[in-house]
């Protein structure tokens, strides 16, 4: 009788703790129902991270875990923030969302180059994305559940390759497949173009070695010629050259399409990222979920630390939240 009792207790424990998790590949267990984000109605558009409107709205901390997007696979220790502070507001039929999270490093030198010496014209730069170091960029995503299509309408912000133009990328996630939204831009669809010509940069800033920033704008470049732009001219060892050229004009292009209809503003201060993203509730694009007809939508929030998102494997450098209700006015 005692053996039977022990077996019964063991079976009950296994059932309670083994079946309580989310093992069907649909994502982590949802947070308590008390956690929800309510979008305020704003009298003015809070387009910047320090706009006074944000000071009137209570922030909600949305937990993030270093997990796979589609299945609960915790990893430890996490290299990303364990929560993201979220605020939301609606003004003139446009949704504004403010995100804030801790990140010890500002990762904006994706696939950059480094000056390795000043004593020879040849082989004086190193392509960092070919080294063993990780050189990507910090990223943020907010996903809106489109239950009718079984997908997530997605805004992806990247600290260099979208933020450089004041934008975030529109996309859709279905299962573990990420598909960019459509754009009508001619000659390419990206805000950022790899600054690469073999093992050397295609372009440098028009101020040559005087430029030390990470944001290389298209209209401020000159073609890089190693023999002309000698390392003896003033470059410093370990000085970096950006790995991407940014076309900031995309933000004003009427043909930018659904891929680039999300605006962004950001700030990195004291080990904290603050980002504001905004988009029309109804963009009229078939790529986008029409939020104007909804009073509530489930969202998920995700961040990475110097890494691209993975939708099929876990990583300590990325964190995804479970579904959280966003209440719309």
Tell me what you see in this structure:
By secondary structure, this protein is mainly beta. The chain has 1 helix and 22 strands. The protein has one helix at 2-18, and strands at residues 37-38, 40-41, 60-63, 83-91, 94-102, 113-115, 125-127, 139-146, 151-158, 167-174, 177-180, 192-194, 203-205, 216-217, 221-223, 240-241, 244-246, 262-269, 272-280, 296-304, 318-320, 324-327. Strands 1, 2, 3, 4, 5, 8, 9, 10, 11, 18, 19, 20, 21 and 22 form a 14-stranded mixed beta sheet that branches. Strand 9 (151-158) and strand 10 (167-174) form a beta hairpin. The radius of gyration is 23 Å and the shape is elongated. 36% of the residues are buried.
Give the termini separation: 61 Å
Q: Helical proportion?
A: under 10%
Parts with pLDDT < 50 across at least 5 consecutive residues: 1-29, 70-78
User: Which of globular, elongated, flat, extended, rod-shaped describes the shape?
Assistant: elongated
| Biggest beta sheet attributes | 14 strands, mixed
**Strand-residue fraction?**
25-35%
Whole-number mean pLDDT: 83
Series of secondary-structure elements, N-terminal to C-terminal: HEEEEEEEEEEEEEEEEEEEEEE
Rg from C-alpha positions? 23 Å
Structural class determined from secondary elements: mainly beta
Give the tally of β-strands: 22
Number of helices: 1
Features:
single chain, 329 residues, 14-stranded mixed β-sheet, 3-stranded antiparallel β-sheet
Offer a quick outline of the entry.
This protein is mainly beta and 329 residues long. It has 1 helix and 22 strands.
What is the strand and helix layout of this fold?
Layout: H1 2-18, E1 37-38, E2 40-41, E3 60-63, E4 83-91, E5 94-102, E6 113-115, E7 125-127, E8 139-146, E9 151-158, E10 167-174, E11 177-180, E12 192-194, E13 203-205, E14 216-217, E15 221-223, E16 240-241, E17 244-246, E18 262-269, E19 272-280, E20 296-304, E21 318-320, E22 324-327
Parallel strand pairs: 1-22, 2-4, 14-17
Antiparallel strand pairs: 3-4, 4-5, 5-19, 6-7, 6-16, 8-9, 8-20, 9-10, 10-11, 10-18, 12-17, 13-15, 18-19, 20-21, 20-22
């Amino acid at each position: 009788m005692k053996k039977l009792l022990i077996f019964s207790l063991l079976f009950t424990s296994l059932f309670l703790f083994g079946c309580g998790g989310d093992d069907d590949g649909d994502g982590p267990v949802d947070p308590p129902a008390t956690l929800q984000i309510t979008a305020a109605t704003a009298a003015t558009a809070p387009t910047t991270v320090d706009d006074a409107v944000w000071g009137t709205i209570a922030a909600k901390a949305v937990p993030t875990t270093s997990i796979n997007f589609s299945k609960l696979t915790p990893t430890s220790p996490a290299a990303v923030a364990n929560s993201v502070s979220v605020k939301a507001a609606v003004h003139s039929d446009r949704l504004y969302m403010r995100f804030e999270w801790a990140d010890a490093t500002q990762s904006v030198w994706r696939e950059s180059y480094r000056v390795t010496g000043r004593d020879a014209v040849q082989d004086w730069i190193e392509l960092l994305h070919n080294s063993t170091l990780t050189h990507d960029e910090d990223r943020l995503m907010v996903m809106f559940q489109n239950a009718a299509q079984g997908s997530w309408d997605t805004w992806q912000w990247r600290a260099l390759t979208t933020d450089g133009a004041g934008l975030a990328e529109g996309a859709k996630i279905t299962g573990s497949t990420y598909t960019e939204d459509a754009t009508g831009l001619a000659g390419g669809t990206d805000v950022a173009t790899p600054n690469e010509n073999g093992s050397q940069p295609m372009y440098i800033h028009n101020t040559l070695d005087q430029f030390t920033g990470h944001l290389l704008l298209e209209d401020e470049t000159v073609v890089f010629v190693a023999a002309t732009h000698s390392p003896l001219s003033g470059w410093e060892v370990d000085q970096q050259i950006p790995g991407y050229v940014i076309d900031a004009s995309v933000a004003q292009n009427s043909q930018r399409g659904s891929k680039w209809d999300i605006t962004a503003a950001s700030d990195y201060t004291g080990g904290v990222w603050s980002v504001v993203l905004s988009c029309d509730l109804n963009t009229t694009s078939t790529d986008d979920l029409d939020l104007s007809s909804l009073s509530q939508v489930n969202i998920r929030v995700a961040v990475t630390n110097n890494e691209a998102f993975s939708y099929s494997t876990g990583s300590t450098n990325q964190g995804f939240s479970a579904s959280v209700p966003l209440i719309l006015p």
